[in-house]
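Schema walk-through. Below, the input block comes first and the output block second. Nothing else is stored per chain. Lengths vary across the set, and this one has 294 residues.
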Amino acid sequence: LEDITTLTIGSLLTEDQIPRALETIGEILTTGRQQNPTEHRLRRKDGGHVFVETQASLIYRDGKPFAIQGIARDITERKRAEDALRESEALLNDSGEMAKVGGWKLDLVTNKLTWSRELYRIHEVDDDFVPTVEGAIGFYAPESRAVIQQAVERAIECGEPFNLELEIVTAKNKRRWVHTMGRIQGRQGGTTFLSGTFQDIATRKRAEEALTERVHLAALDADIGNVLSGEGTLREGFQLCTEALVRHLDVALARIWTLNESTQVLELEASAGIYTRIDGAHARVPVDKFNIGK
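--- output ---
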């Protein structure tokens, strides 16, 4: 009891807490009560600290302010849990940024869509952007929009999960490949959520496309090598080469002309793809006509 009666604000509070305490006391003296609970960090006798939440009001005697009376509730465990949660969220955000993956959740009762921080970065929107279902689907490229729309509807109506790789167009008008997954997560307090992950896979897609291109070029090189080392007429070899170009480069049309130097005319030797005839309008083309031969 003797220890308590000798306590002062300065002995209880750390230096950074004193201004807030004095502000609260001023509020009580002016209005007669504390409007909102205040959190403080107090010194303990053993040198440690404890967090408390205080609520106080002014006591009157003979119609005059006499004392301030209040209660203090120990919230140390709650503060520790909040700190742990903030650290966990920070770690999750850092990990998501490194992996370029974020999460999203749709409340199917209120239709409120929530994004993690990484989804704002992937879509290249400001931090104050408010995501909606319609807006999120609107970010998908025109050719991908119907696919994601149907997937979301099937997930909500039938409980079918989805796992898709599609293209979006960011707020800065950049096309970007993403991997999106979603599923119904059950009920929380009677509310059903549709939630999932969303990952920027543009780097992986570029690597896949580069690898595919190298594979096609290697196959084309092998086929042309076989033509050059094989038997047959020159025109037959040209035809095999155009067919290989169409097959491995995924082009609609491939043609080979040879130059008749005496007449300065390009003569069509082979054609593959959407046009295979070599006796049509482009069978003999003067140099520089139709931008052919430049």
